Amino acid sequence: MYRILFLLLAGFLLGTACSKDSAPDPAPADAFSRTVAPYLNLSAAAPSYRVSIPNYTKGLFQSVQPNAQLAQLGRVIFYDKHLSKDGTISCAHCHQQAHAFADPTALSTGVEGQKTTRNSMALGNIQWLGGMLGLDSVGNALLPLFWDSRAHSVSEQSRGAFTNAHEMGLTMPEVLQLVRNQPYYPWLFEQAWGDTLVDEARIFTALAHFMNGIHASHSRLDEALARLPDPFDLSSDFPGYSASENIGKAIYVQRCMSCHGSINSIQKVFEANNGLDKNYTDKGKGAISGKFYENGTFKVPGLRNIEFSAPYMHDGRFATLEEVVEHYNSGIVQGFGLHGDLLEYDPLTQSYSPLRLNLTASEKQGLVDFLKTLSDKELINDERYSDPFR
Ligand code: HEC
Ligand code: HEC
Predict the structure, then answer these.
(1) Which pLDDT tens digit goes with each residue over 345-364?
(2) Ligand nearest to the CA of 175
(3) In the structure, what pLDDT confidence band is assigned to residue 152 with cuts at 50, 70 and 90?
(4) Atom of ligand 1 lying closest to residue 117 CA
(5) 280 — phi, psi (to 5°)?
(6) Which single residue of 17, 145, 196, 210 has CA 20 to 30 Å from 328?
(7) Ligand 1: nearest atom to the Cα of 144
(8) 390 in a domain, yes or no?
(9) Cβ proximity of 274 and 314 under 8 Å
């Protein structure tokens, strides 16, 4: 009904604009320029969000290509501060493009100045990870999300963000009403869905398409992998890498890859206790499962663009990659659930102790240098992922 009225009104305005052909046109009278352009720096034709999955992944990743109109709608929702309890917080407030969609402070500030209990997480290449576990019919990645893996789809996670009292502080009916109240959404929904109906599933699906489109595969690591005769044989030096980066690469392959994967996503371990504390205040997965041996177990995060997403770990305790490397070098603490890959067996005493890498200064530097080859500057500069609000 409203839609018909709206179209009639649009037609009426169009008609009057055309009939007064001598007067300068105050504003082009189509819905886009009246209802979208004043608020959003978008073009009427949504840009492509096609993801190019590199050949060297050899079909390991499924891909449901993000739909351009859905991703564009998702982008606006992602950056829309109106969709929070006090009108100040959007998803992007804690997931900032310049920081690989993480937050440069250890704990983020949500609505009404409240602090989150954990460090915000970087968002690039969510689809790659999801591809490992499959995608649902609309392209939502069925991956474990959050530091404690408690959400299993982007929908579940997004509902969590909107309704978390420390994040956006709303109920879902309130979110729907706020979306309906904004003048630019009817046009965007019409483009994405063919009509202006606003419901939860449409919002989550649009967010999923946008986040699946935030994609990085132009790092120095990608260049090297594409040039290797066999991208799964990482034993020889990488082409195009410095000596220091190759030293780091060798350590990474031996000590880090079992958990973090060779190209961020081919990993064996999805969650682990990596020896930050003996007793964890935030029990991570253990708090959800109630199993004491899962206390301190957290999601293994992907390391793409890790250079940009400091501070590190679930509580943001490490400010630099140097500190992270020192943790794995000399700081691993043996609590109950410490993962076996970070333990060492001593045949003399027949006991396990936390791994000590005893790296030299140049080996530590090499590891840091290698981690920086995972950076893709396009991700942090691409306008398609940026704030569209004027
Ligand atoms: C107030 C800060 C804040 C806001 C606002 C926020 N997030 Fe988050 N986000 C976080 C934090 C903190 C985590 C980690 C939470 C946890 O593990 O408990 C997170 C985790 C995530 C993850 C999981 C990533 C992964 O690899 O597991 C996704 C996806 C995400 N947020 C997307 C969103 C979307 C979409 C919105 C908006 C609807 C949003 N966030 C709003 C702080 C925020
Ligand atoms: C046994 C699995 C495992 C191994 C091996 C491992 N990590 Fe991790 N890593 C994790 C887990 C789990 C986390 C998140 C822990 C947390 O926040 O409580 C993590 C976090 C990180 C982070 C921070 C990521 C972020 O977004 O905050 C970096 C960087 C990192 N690891 C690098 C390395 C390097 C370098 C190595 C090799 C020296 C390594 N890891 C070996 C499991 C592992």
Answers:
(1) 999 999 999 999 999 999 99
(2) 1
(3) confident
(4) 12
(5) -85, 130
(6) 145
(7) 27
(8) no
(9) no
And the tokens for 320? 């630099």
**What distance in angstroms lies between residue 263's CA and the mean position of ligand 2's atoms?**
14
Q: Domain range for residue 297?
A: 220-374
Q: What's the gap in Å between 81 CA and the centre of ligand 1?
A: 15
Backbone angles phi, psi at 342, to 5 degrees: -110, 20
Q: Which two structure tokens, joined as six digits, stand for 138? A: 């609309």
> What is the pTM assigned to this prediction?
0.90
* Nearest ligand to the CA atom of 299: 2
The atom number, within ligand 2, closest to the CA of 314 reads: 17
Closest CA to 161 of 93, 72, 256, 100: 93
Q: Is residue 323 part of a domain?
A: yes
Query: How many separate domains does the chain show?
Result: 3
Q: Which residues pair with 127 in a beta bridge?
A: none
Do the domain assignments include residue 66?
yes
Ligand 2 centroid to residue 184 C-alpha, Å: 42
> Same domain, yes or no, for 225 and 109?
no
Instruction: Decide: 329 in ligand 1 pocket, CB within 6 A.
Output: no
- Ligand 1 pocket check for 138: Cβ under 6 Å: no
Please indicate, yes or no, whether residues 176 and 268 belong to a single structural domain of this protein. Answer: no
Q: Are 300 and 267 in contact (CB under 8 A)?
A: yes
| 77, 128: one domain | yes
Burial class (CB in 10 A: 0-12, 13-18, 19+), 11: exposed
Percent of the chain with pLDDT over 90: 67
Locate 355 and state its tokens.
């791994």
Mutate to test the pocket of ligand 1, among 95, 147, 270 (most ligand atoms within 8 A of CB): 95
The minimum-distance atom of ligand 2 relative to the CA of 122 is 26
Number of H helices, E strands in the chain: 16, 4
Q: What is the dihedral of CA 119, 271, 56, 100, to 10 degrees?
A: 0
